[in-house]
Amino acid sequence: MDNKIIITAAVTGSVHIPTMSDYLPITPDEIVEDAVKAHEAGAAIAHIHVRNPENGLPVSDPDLFMEVHQKIKARCNIILLPTTGGGMNQTTEEKLIPIKKLQPEMCSFDPAPFNFGIFQIAGRFKEYKYDWEPEYLELCKNVTFRPTFKDDEIYGKTFLEIDTKPEIEIYELGHVSYVSWLLEENLLKPPVHLQFVFGPMVGWMTPSVKHLVLIYDEAKEVLGKDNFTWSVAAGGRFQIPITTTAMAMGAQNVRVGLEDSIYAGKGIMAKASADQVNMIKRIAKEMSLEPATSDEARQILGLKGLDKVNF
User: Fold this and answer.
1) For the segment 183-239, what is each residue's pLDDT rounded down to a tens digit?
2) Model pTM?
3) What is the CATH number of the domain that holds 93?
4) Range of the domain at 190
5) What is the chain's alpha carbon radius of gyration, rounded to the nearest angstrom?
6) Which of 13, 122, 236, 255 is most buried by a 10 A CB count?
7) Which residues contact 105 (CB under 8 A, 6 or more apart)?
């Protein structure tokens, strides 16, 4: 598996608003179609958020999650990785409702406080498609994602109970210590899977080779190089350069998709997450790397298998 790279497609997310792109998947069927096309292009994992199908507002409706997961599973065997990010004001218990229902192979996990500085986007537009969009962008000025240590215990116990492997989102250097603590408390099973997440939003790590090397070295020192696999996600124009750097450094996994960038090259709007999957796949092949299939990714990451999910 040394020449394999796992490609994740994050297909809609909760950062971009419909005003920014006509191609952003909104309805369940649009999200399903984007994920399936990404899989056909070479993605082994799809990271799933859902939105209000009427207006594109990011939501955490368990029924929408179930519909999307069931429809994707009916069409392909891609690994589905739903978010536990939920809404900005949701409790931990509310965020875990879809995960407990789905019992997926993987899910995202934000163990440490971080800010979600998307308010700068608001100044780019004079008109919006939907009334909720400007208020949503400004809301993050007053809200911090602030899981407590007690919240982390709840998350960790839940993931162990349903045998779902968390993808642990790391937004800054100090977040690695949260992973170390959770391992000490036996709330995570090694090897853990880390995803280093880079801006360009206010409050996130500045996308740079220097910072990627720094946080990777920190993880090796604190956790031990054999105790984790790792992925990288980077926003906007940094998506391809930072994920390419990660592949050169030996990452097992890289993430692209419309959640992180709405472009497929300078000034070229991506019409689907598959456009970016194809971009990173071409670069990978020039580096003698082949996209891992979903089943190969299951083997690399030690997942329970699609037959053990609840959707």
Assistant:
1) 999 999 999 999 999 988 777 889 999 999 999 999 999 999 999 999 999 999 999
2) 0.97
3) 3.20.20.70
4) 4-308
5) 18
6) 255
7) 79, 80, 81, 164, 165, 298, 303, 304, 305, 306, 308, 309
